[in-house]
Structure formats: C-alpha cells, structure tokens
Design brief:
three-stranded antiparallel sheet, single chain
Length: 236
Amino acid sequence: MSVSGYATLTRQIGLERELQAIANNIANGSTTGFRREGVVFSEYVRRLDDGPSVSMAWASARNVDLTQGEPEQTGGSFDFAIKGEGFFLVETPQGNRLTRAGHFTPSAEGELVNPDGYRLLDQGGAPVFVPPDAGSVSLAADGTLSAAGAPLARIGLWQPADPLTLRHEGGTLFVADGEVPAEGATLSQGYLEGSNVSPVFELARMIEVQRAYELGQSFLDREDDRLRTVIQKLGG
C-alpha cells in the first residue's frame, strides 16, 4: 500500500472509532447522568527511512462533554441531582469511582447504594448510612442528609484532582487520578440529572462522519485499482 493509502487508512480507523462513540451516545440518550463523548483527532507525523515525513491521523483519545444535563423531577427520597460541577463518589470492587447518576436506594444494611449495588460515600469517604427506622429523610443543598431534624450524613461532592485525568470507564462511571472536594456545587432531592446527549446533534454528526468514511473508502478503492493496474502492466 502507498503512503497515501496508509494515511487514509489511519483516518478511516479514527472515523470508525468516532462512529462507535456516536452510537454509544445515542444509545444512552435517556440514561441518567450520562455524559456524551467525542473522539479527539490529532496529527501523527513520522519520518520515513531515506525519505520525507508522512502525516497520519491519530484518534485514540476521547473527550468527555461535562455540560450539565436537564434535571428531571421524580419525587424519590433518594434521588439526588447535582447542580454545578462535581460528582458523587461510589465504592466499586475496582476502587472508588465518580458518577453524576444520583439514583440510590437503602440496602438491607441501611447503606445507600446505586442500581449496581455500589455504596455512596460521604464527604469523608465513608458509606452513607440511613437507619431502617429513620422515616422521612430530607436533603439540604449542601448535601446534609437528615431524618426528623437530626443529621445522618453529609453526601460528598467530588471532582478530579486533575481534570485532564478524568476517564470514562463505562456506563455512567468515571475514574480519575485522585479526587478532591467540589466547590460551589449543590444538591437537589427528588430530582435526577438527565443525559446531556442531543439526539438531533448526534444523528447529524453520524451522517457527517459516515459521508467522510465513505469518501475515504472510495479513495482506498481507487488507490487499490491503480496499484493493481500498475502491477498488471509491469507484469505483462
């Protein structure tokens, strides 16, 4: 394959990854707390042996869109929505993870857990415990969870120590190289934050990327035909 063919092929691989990201965004358009992703394209330049340099596409990194989703009222006592920057911190078998999905329920032990059974952590990094006989609970904007006027815990709001290390691990979970308390964020009880995916934008972007992919594939097919013709003529 020619140099131009390799350069186009690297671009095709990047476009395929972007199509996968778009498809995942569309599939999670109604997922609570989901954050859309995009593929980051960059230029990769390498000097050939005894020849000029060649420029190729590099699209292995993903960009997480942290734009806030619309709050949806549920009325659930343990449905919490974050307003502003920040994440909930949940305990998973692989370590602590960040999430914006705020749907929790008390476990049999009285600890608040998400639908996957991961425990919600307070501002000190300990599980949030609600006694079975607590009755009606209320949540203050600063994250203080109370029952009958007595505070039970203060839900922690966190953010990555270095925003550039934030990585989407899967679903609505994120991992970062260390977490620090989030400043200025507040909580609302009885609400859940919706996905920040815009289906119209994603569909338009998918059409655009598909057209770019088809154009690149057409070039590769023509390049293949050209090389095949050259080989046949030289062989004849």
